[in-house]
Specification:
Layout: H1 6-13, E1 40-46, E2 54-61, E3 74-80, E4 91-95, E5 101-106, E6 121-128, E7 132-137, H2 141-144, E8 152-156, E9 162-166, E10 174-182, E11 185-192, H3 197-200, E12 205-216, E13 224-240, E14 244-246, E15 248-253, E16 259-263, E17 268-272, E18 287-291, E19 298-303, E20 309-313, E21 318-322, E22 328-333, E23 343-348, E24 355-359, E25 364-369
Antiparallel strand pairs: 1-25, 2-3, 3-4, 4-5, 6-7, 7-8, 8-9, 10-11, 11-12, 12-13, 13-14, 15-16, 16-17, 17-18, 19-20, 20-21, 21-22, 23-24, 24-25
Length: 376
């Protein structure tokens, strides 16, 4: 709550009631699992840009055309440089529905604000108001051979140029994020995985957090950070020789305002109720929604059109669908190689006709859809 203020609290309390219609639960019988209608994985495009960056992590769909951003395209962030050392990737690629890849941004260390350690782009990736892209940085010093650093969130304009950073406070190793937006205002929900992990030296520590960052989106101006609030704490996290760091990863905002978190180390999904408005953290890693079973080190997380949660496993090549009540209703292999450690970010494809996901086994963007269905 270091940056929370009475002014910010008042702004939250006055958020338009109409915006909260997003959270109204749909009526009717429970729908069939979203994943059950799909059966085919196709490669949309490679994700490696001309500088050779690899290890695709973050993924988001562009909501509208402005600047270099094109509505319906997919942005993908890369975590590794051509050296394949983690925490050194600097690029975001843009992929069109027909598979054409272009470079949206290559981010240097001459940033317009603080970013402890520099640039190493993570799964944290979103588009704000259609005009700005926000990406997380968790860099590793000495060209990927040194120490993971706190990093920051980097804000880029619609032409891929960094315009500001959000750093310090409770931002410490931003690993993934999701966003809630209404006109002129947004809240970012950011998982952080470096609270004590470096000092732990590979031991598991229960200091991972979820931080809500409130932003004003004034017309014609850069986003303005209004405050930071820790809304979830006590998530397990640890340095890892193959994955750099393990901890709370994917986040998805449910229709009732509950924030769901993928707890990678404990193979579970957790819940943080009242995520939009709370000013104290849900402790002890949140409330367990579902654990074990088909869940095996879940990483990315997204909300399906039917209200279910879809995550991808770091422990195998599967996507798992879980209801908000915790029932695991489907599990399907979407990594053609069937290997662990290949899957990270995922989103629902435009028009809900599949699941888009990154595969770092072969550095591609893939689509899980039905045979003979439309492409993205």
């Amino acid at each position: 709550m270091r940056f929370a203020s009475l002014k910010w609290r008042a702004l939250v309390s006055l958020m338009p009631v109409a915006a909260l219609a997003y959270f109204a639960a749909p009526a009717g019988a429970a729908p069939a699992p979203f994943l059950s209608q799909f059966n085919t994985v196709t490669t949309v495009s490679p994700t490696v840009p001309s500088n050779g960056d690899v290890n695709p992590y973050g993924i988001v769909t562009v909501p509208r055309t402005t600047g270099a951003l094109v509505r319906g395209d997919t942005l993908v962030s890369n975590f590794n440089a051509v050296s394949n050392l983690q925490g050194t990737g600097t690029t975001i690629v843009q992929i069109s529905p027909n598979g054409h890849q272009s470079l949206f941004a290559q981010i240097g260390n001459n940033l317009p604000g603080a970013c402890p350690g520099g640039v190493g782009l993570t799964t944290a990736l979103t588009v704000l108001g259609g005009d700005f892209v926000v990406v997380g940085s968790l860099p590793v010093t000495d060209g990927g051979t040194g120490t993971p650093e706190a990093g920051c969130l980097i804000v880029l304009n619609s032409d891929g140029v960094p315009v500001e950073t959000f750093a310090g406070g409770d931002i410490n190793g931003p690993w993934d994020l999701t966003a809630f937006q209404v006109p002129g205002f947004a809240e970012l929900f950011v998982t952080n995985v470096l609270n004590g992990t470096v000092k732990g030296g590979g031991a598991t520590v229960n200091k991972g957090t979820v931080v809500r960052i409130a932003l004003a989106l004034p017309p014609g101006r850069d986003p303005v950070m209004l405050g930071q609030t820790v809304i979830g704490s006590g998530f397990d996290e640890a340095l890892n020789s193959s994955a750099l760091v393990l901890g709370p990863t994917g986040v998805a905002l449910g229709r009732d305002g509950t924030l769901y978190v993928a707890d990678t180390i404990n193979s579970r999904l957790a819940a943080i109720p009242f995520a939009l408005f709370r000013f104290s953290p849900e402790q002890n890693g949140g409330i367990t929604v579902s654990a074990g079973g088909a869940l095996m080190a879940p990483l990315g997380l997204t909300l399906a059109p039917n209200g279910d949660l879809i995550t991808v496993n770091g422990g195998n090549g599967n996507a798992v669908e879980v209801t908000p009540g915790g029932a695991q209703v489907d599990s399907v292999q979407i990594d053609p190689a069937g290997l662990g450690g290949d899957l990270f970010g995922l989103i629902i494809a435009p028009d809900d006709h599949g699941v888009l996901f990154v595969d770092d086994g072969d550095n591609t963007l893939k689509l899980f859809s039905r045979t003979g269905g439309p492409s993205i």
